[in-house]
Design brief:
By secondary structure, the chain is α/β, with parallel strands linked by helices. Helix content is about 35%, strand content about 10%. It is globular, with a radius of gyration of 22 Å. It starts with 5 loop residues before the first strand and ends in an 18-residue tail after the last helix. The chain has a 4-stranded antiparallel β-sheet. Strands 1-2 form a two-stranded parallel ribbon. It has a two-stranded parallel sheet with strand order 3-4.
């Protein structure tokens, strides 16, 4: 503690139990009272994915130990229409989308947009899109779950290829490029499948997963 009386831990949701025990031991006296200043910045909604060994139980324990809670309520990266759309979506869904329907203490909290990203608004045919959040629903999907997933991946790859080839999609006046697009998937096999589909359509892509680098083609 003499060496590090103040510590700031960013991305705290990726901290595991042992790491937090070390931090707590440094910044808590033998009488159990906090000493110095330990600042922990993190998002419990990300902790559930267990990136880098972090877990939600460590996060909630640390949050319970913290004396003060300072929420980050301004989104610095997303456009104002998109932030408003996400807020409206979670408001309409209610507690159904929260962990254990709101009883876990992990919930989406509405935020405001800083407006910094509005200069790079998304436009199609020269007009800014009015609905930045679009949910695609299929009520007539048939076949097994695997077949449905594959159909969804093919639709995703087809839409990406069409957007890039149209010449009408722009971000801040700049033509849409592959590096502007990110796709989040729950399964590494789905990531590999989508990459194959995109490459077949001539769309370059980079994937991230937990597979060994020795299992790749290069």
């Amino acid at each position: 503690h003499a060496a590090w009386p103040v510590a700031l831990v960013d991305e705290f949701q990726d901290t595991d139990g042992i790491q937090y025990d070390i931090l707590d031991r440094i910044h808590r006296g033998v009488d159990g009272r906090p000493r110095g200043r330990l600042l922990m910045i993190g998002d419990p909604k990300q902790a559930i994915y267990r990136f880098r060994g972090g877990d939600i139980h460590t996060y909630t324990r640390a949050a319970g130990d913290a004396g003060d809670h300072l929420p980050l309520t301004v989104n610095q990266r997303s456009s104002t229409p998109y932030v408003e759309a996400v807020n409206a979506f979670f408001e309409a869904a209610g507690a159904a989308l929260d962990a254990r329907e709101g009883s876990s203490g992990i919930a989406y909290l509405p935020v405001t947009a800083a407006g910094r990203a509005d200069k790079r608004a998304y436009a199609v045919d020269g007009s800014h899109i009015e609905r930045p959040l679009v949910i695609h629903v299929r009520d007539d999907a048939a076949g097994t779950k695997d077949a449905q997933v594959d159909e969804a991946l093919k639709a995703c790859a087809g839409q990406i290829a069409a957007m890039l080839a149209s010449g009408t999609h722009h971000i801040g006046g700049e033509a849409l490029r592959p590096e502007h697009i990110a796709v989040l998937l729950p399964d590494n096999h789905q990531v590999a499948r989508l990459r194959t589909l995109l490459e077949r359509k001539g769309v370059p892509c980079v994937t991230r997963g937990r597979d060994s680098v020795f299992a790749g083609d290069i």
